[in-house]
Amino acid sequence: MASVTSSAARKKARDHAAALLDAEDAERRRREQERKRRITEAAADIAGIDVEIEELTAKIEQLRADSGRLLASIVADGVSPEQAAAMTGRELRQVRAAVKATAGAGRPPAKAKPRVRVAAEKAAA
Q1: 3-state SS assignment for residue 2
Q2: Is the pTM of this model over 0.70?
Q3: Of 10, 114, 115, 120, whose CA is between 20 and 30 Å from 72?
């Protein structure tokens, strides 16, 4: 029977234990890298969504202002606020507020005309 010295057996056990620990460390590093990637991607996605929200909010405000100007222009064309409210499905107070806001802007409302969407807007919608 071949005899193994105690120092050789210890070395073999140390090497085996070190290999197991190295494998565990590698797996832990891989999991940590994956976690870090998920977190950074989520943070980047949140930043992108926040920018998109700001852009959409600005667009909504612009569309509301356009709508208010168009309501005021309908009234400026001689339609009563009550009729304008009935035609557009708005409340009378909304029509009056639009007329007041346009009058407060210091310039008379333009004549009512349908809004023509440009091709770029259609493509974006």
Answers
A1: coil
A2: no
A3: 120
